[in-house]
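Annex B. Sample input.
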Amino acid sequence: MKRESRLFTPIAIGGLTLPNRIAVSPMCQYSAVGGSATDWHLQHLGSLSLGGAGLLIIEATAVEPEGRITPGCLGLYSDANEAALEPVVALCRRWGSARLGIQLAHAGRKASVEVPWEGGKPLTVAAGAWRSLASSAIPFDEGWPAPQALDESGLARVRDAFAAAARRAARLGFDLVELHGAHGYLLHTFLSPIANRRGDAYGGSLEQRMRFPLEVAQAVRQVWPRERALGMRITGCDWIEGGLTSEDAGIFARELETIGFDYVCVSSGGISPKARIRVAPGYQVPFAECVKKMCGIAVQAVGMIVDPNQAEAIIAEGRADWVALARAFLDDPRWGWHAADVLGAEAHCPPQYHRARPNLWPGAALAKAARGG
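Annex B, continued. Sample output.
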């Protein structure tokens, strides 16, 4: 008798219950105008909301204009930004099955760059460059401008901007908010000793480096509804000697748990181009596993999770509580359906597409074989 799929069992994240343990990770699209969503977001997110995942998280969304990675990055710092996201949320609600989250972020010293397909290099003044911000005035790489180290008033402004964006997300009806504390962006530059060389209360020991990210977390916790879900993407490893470790991530996760966060997503890297990341299937799962042993909140694993059996094993073996996939969903927006087929489970499919499912379409087996399934 085939065992019930663990990947397709419900999970409670705070006050939010998801029908399965699959999330679509936030994925930057660099297709906003002035921080506002466009038709691209309507079709992109609308399609992903149909694909069988329990949760869809909207891309890293800047909490102030200076927090955008590129001029094309999404924002939630103005009434116009909020209004532009409203029809996107409505479309996904009306036709999709996934619950909806949004990742609130500040790019820090990695801000003010070209979109990736135009090179991804720092913008010139002529191209509209703005001053980037960080924990310390250390450039991200050679040839990059030195960021401005945040002073007391800047810290307060950014903290309040995160809280204000969370209020907008609540008004829009999102089920979940995730703060971005990884990938070399602003909150990560405070946490990591690679980027944080401050001599005040926000630098030095791990306890002091955690101070500002935890202040931001506390400010968001105070305004985000308890009946919804709140989490943070954190770094499990800097991949540089002397950088953050999985044990540091576990300590940070415990502090977030104390504040009242419901989960952490454990990623890695991004703090410096000097990092040498050993990429392989599931390469970040050991970091999530370590954090899970150190805290009591839900832990999400990410990192080249592509195969349904791989995702199933991560959950069944207790290495993480749920998984998030990014490029696998770009490659196959119906990944959730196909994973359910492989694992003998069920994923929601809109009735308009029922005739493409294996029980109604003989060609489904041919399509599966063509995909290598």
